[in-house]
């Protein structure tokens, strides 16, 4: 017995009328496509299911924007690819510093700093702060400024642009290069510590 083809047009009509069963059917129908796209573009440290859920959420919230000029699966594919690319860009802007990247001594200092205030040794916090200051001191003044404003003071790119007079593209480029330089300096420091 052959399986009936999926009635996408009818399902979309029912979804627009807030039919929950139709919504589930639509997700089940599109899940293999979305899953394949997510796996092909999966950003590091992002769960496949979480990203797929974000894609379906965007699909449902933007359903009124679908005009029917392209096939619906193509429209959903575009949402999926764009969502994955946005995640990748976010990771490049704010690279995650993993615990596994730390040496034993660095992990111990961070454990002490992150512990309850009563357990923190003043020397550990001071040592960590001094390490950051030493690394920042090796950067050019403009690079040091952009890192302090963006990463330490958590200002947005627009705020940094307004404060410095640089355009937003320059702020992003300078921050990217400064972060790479800091990462290189940190790795050199780790290599010296291991030697």
SSE topology sketch:
Layout: H1 8-16, H2 20-41, H3 48-61, H4 72-93, H5 104-114, H6 122-137, H7 141-152, H8 157-164, H9 168-194
What does this structure look like?
Mean pLDDT is 77; it is low at 95-99. The protein has 2 domains: 8-93, RNA polymerase sigma factor, region 2, helix turn helix motif (Rna Polymerase Sigma Factor, Chain: A), CATH 1.10.1740.10; 138-194, Arc Repressor Mutant, subunit A. The protein is mainly alpha-helical. The termini are far apart. It has helices at residues 8-16, 20-41, 48-61, 72-93, 104-114, 122-137, 141-152, 157-164, 168-194.
Instruction: Please name the CATH topology of the largest domain.
Output: Rna Polymerase Sigma Factor, Chain: A
Distance between the termini: 70 Å
Portion in beta strands = under 5%
Bulk shape: elongated
CATH level-four homologous superfamily name of the largest domain: RNA polymerase sigma factor, region 2, helix turn helix motif
For this structure, the quaternary state is: single chain
Radius of gyration equals 24 Å
Q: How many domains comprise the coordinates?
A: 2
- Strands, total number: 0
User: From the 3D coordinates, which CATH architecture of the largest domain would you assign?
Assistant: Orthogonal Bundle
The major beta sheet can be summarized as:
none
CATH hierarchy, class of the largest domain: Mainly Alpha
């Amino acid at each position: 017995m052959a399986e009936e083809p999926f009635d996408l047009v009818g399902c979309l009509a029912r979804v627009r009328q807030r039919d929950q069963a139709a919504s589930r059917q639509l997700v089940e129908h599109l899940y293999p496509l979305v899953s394949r796209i997510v796996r092909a573009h999966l950003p590091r440290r992002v769960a496949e299911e979480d990203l797929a859920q974000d894609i379906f959420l965007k699909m449902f919230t933007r359903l009124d924007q679908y005009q029917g000029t392209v096939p619906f699966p193509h429209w959903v594919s575009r949402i999926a690819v764009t969502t994955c690319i946005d995640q990748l860009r976010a990771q490049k802007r704010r690279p995650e510093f993993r615990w596994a990247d730390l040496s034993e001594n660095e992990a111990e200092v961070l454990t002490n700093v992150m512990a309850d205030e009563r357990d923190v040794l003043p020397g550990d916090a001071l040592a960590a702060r001094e390490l950051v200051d030493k690394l920042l001191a090796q950067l050019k003044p403009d690079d040091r400024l952009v890192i302090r404003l963006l990463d330490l003071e958590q200002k947005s790119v627009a705020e940094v642009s307004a404060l410095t007079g640089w355009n937003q593209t320059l702020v992003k480029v300078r921050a990217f290069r400064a972060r790479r330089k800091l990462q290189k300096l940190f790795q050199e420091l780790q290599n010296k510590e291991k030697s």
